[in-house]
């Protein structure tokens, strides 16, 4: 079988061309040929065929195309199903692109051995395989574009190499026509212009050679604004001066260096290399770009954590770049297996010089002389230098060539940021899709019995780290009695995960240990203690708390861990960097902590971090509510250190929102440690966050975890505080009866332990449950009592909080004038105390009272203030704003605007799953319907929904309002009997209001 991609796609068997079916089948075969010998996922094939508009039946269609393609090829075994992908089996000599690369490499070897005629013949045979551009007709498809561009670039490089040989053989006269055409077709390739100039000069056409230079210079200047590179400029001067070095007899155009030893030091590339294609392409692009001789060498640094595949990527790229660096490839491993004793640059230079043909006896002893000789040998030669696992920039710098004709790939666990002008590639863990492909590639069909869930678990438990995935593949191949499920079970136990990820000399623990060993003792300690946290990520102040140090020291230590990729910066929300581990690194950190830190020190670190988190909740509470809502003793946890680490312009509640997941994890971890006081304090510390952002599941989980521990520990105060928080959760979810029960139980517990402040706080919450139940007189009495007692105790913010329900009770009792006076007093007090949440909430109610008083202008002023503060009440702010303006438009008779804003309020309420909000918006929307008789049928449906919602939350005031509006709608529609029935129900609801 002969597969041809160097031109239009073609397949021949025994010299007979085969039909390939539909265009989609041809695309499928082309993609498989791009990765011959490796499986390609069905998703990747579907993406290649249909792009982003794949049909629902794409997977089945791919199966059909593969089946038909097998029939066309006449060999069912050519394409096999492996997992969720397909593999095309083809030997290298069956694919013209592979034959082309192999023949070109053989030509270079012949050239290095001085066999010019054989080299020319092999280069010519390689180029004869081309029938047109690679993948002609389909090369623009995204799945093929990169490979097509790579092959076309290789062809041009080989053309230039063959012309080099022809010039050395004195065939300059035969080359003129070809070079003229090539420079017209590829006007930016300076090497071709140099070939043309040299051929013209050697043919005795010195003037034409100079004109060729002027044409090249003109094209470059006009199209790119650049002057020709140094090589072309020097050739121009040589032609002007009739330099004897241009004589073909001397072969001085390359300084005679072609006869020097060609070093081939690269280790073999991985046959199953997969993933990291974008990074591989980036490395190649930098190192294939043309550079002037006097420019610095092209340098690419590849950094990343241990086991992420830096060496594999560097070696893979170096092999693919052989045609661009025909004079040799040098390779050195710089760590020598011990991070504390890296290989000296002088030792590496000695190896390189010997590989370049310098006799051992001629290698200088002095390191500087070695570097001078090394750079002299590399000058003007096209050599690629691979420096693997570098310790730091000081080790790498003496090994850098001085010539722009050379390239360098330097890998390291550190970022090597001090190498000026280097292009930086940073490797991360692979994508899930690439990880699955790597597993399938390395397991040779052993994953056939694995379920999709087991495959996903394997990838997750390996943290998508190439080294771990390769170990899993080796384990499955070497232990035929193991199933993928067996490995999942072993890796699921974090305590033994690193033990399981080991196969002969491949071991994740060892790879991580090499990075750990190079750290300073202080950084090692921080690494170990941070690994004990259950939080997925953490900010600077958490690191400072873990090792009980100042922020500057903590930042320096974090930078050290980040630089060597033992920690990652996972984001910078609100301008505050957050750091995190990947799972295997965290497992190693915990393992080292168990081995090196006593239990008391480990627990102390966790408690300090959770205490700092508690301090942040207190800071956010004070910023948000003007008070510590639940009298927690957060002051003992260095709140000044936490405050100093926070961006000054960021709202504290926003910063606490970034800690939501760590907060929930912290409550669990405090419970695991048996720290009942810290546990309940953290749980109620999230109250304001959970309420404003409506994180109900997190709220309930924290309450349940902390309450179970508080009960077990006999912590009555903790139970009472948690019950207040639970009352808040139930109130926010509009379960007013259960909310009142929780609050009443909390008051009883506070009385039991004689906690007067706690009792008063619970008392201040009572009006919030009385108003929805229609017990307005009780609410006014309770609210006033709480207001007076809290004010007397210096709790101004809490007093205003309780007093707000007095204003609302008067409003619902039909006394808007009194309500407006109370609410205006609250708003003024909230402004004075800086309690933005109260300003926002009570300007809403003040505006409603002003609308009831017929004062729309004053209501507008209140709602403008509400709009400015709405963000401070979290997700609810959008509802309050939309509903407020809808009510004002309604009062002014602006029915179209009223309908629009009230519909917006309904949508927000439904998105928040808030029945009380929804009922309130629907009540006002019914008024709009009354003025639009064409929408009476829609109003009836909305009214029934409002009745259903109001009944569900047992809010008699809302229910009465809905029923009264519905009665009016029924009367307007001519249904007097229905209207009378609804009015009777409304009266029944009003009876419950007292």
Sheet with the most strands? 6 strands, parallel
Q: Kindly state the mean pLDDT as a whole number? A: 87
By DSSP (H or I, 4+ residues per run), the number of helices equals 46
> DSSP strand (E) fraction?
5-15%
As laid out across the biggest beta sheet, the strand order is 7-9-10-11-8-12
Query: Which descriptor suits the 3D outline?
Result: elongated
Structural class: alpha/beta
> Gap between N and C termini, in Å?
93 Å
Number of strands: 17
- The residue fraction in helices comes out at 55-70%
- Spans with pLDDT under 50 lasting ≥5 residues? 250-259, 336-340
Estimated radius of gyration: 38 Å
Give a verbal description of the structure:
By secondary structure, the chain is of the alpha/beta class. Among the domains are: 2-95, Arc Repressor Mutant, subunit A (Orthogonal Bundle), CATH 1.10.10.10; 171-247, Tetratricopeptide repeat domain (Serine Threonine Protein Phosphatase 5, Tetratricopeptide repeat, Alpha Horseshoe); 263-426, Rossmann fold (3-Layer(aba) Sandwich), CATH 3.40.50; 437-511, no CATH class; 528-684 and 698-708, no CATH class; 910-994, Tetratricopeptide repeat domain (Serine Threonine Protein Phosphatase 5, Tetratricopeptide repeat, Alpha Horseshoe), CATH 1.25.40.10. Helix content is 63%, strand content 6%. The chain has 46 helices and 17 strands. Strands 7-9-10-11-8-12 form a six-stranded parallel beta sheet, with helices on both faces. It has a three-stranded antiparallel beta sheet with strand order 1-2-3, with no helix packed on it. Strand 5 and strand 6 (85-88) form a beta hairpin. Helix 39 runs parallel beside helix 41. Residues 250-259 and 336-340 have low confidence and may be disordered.
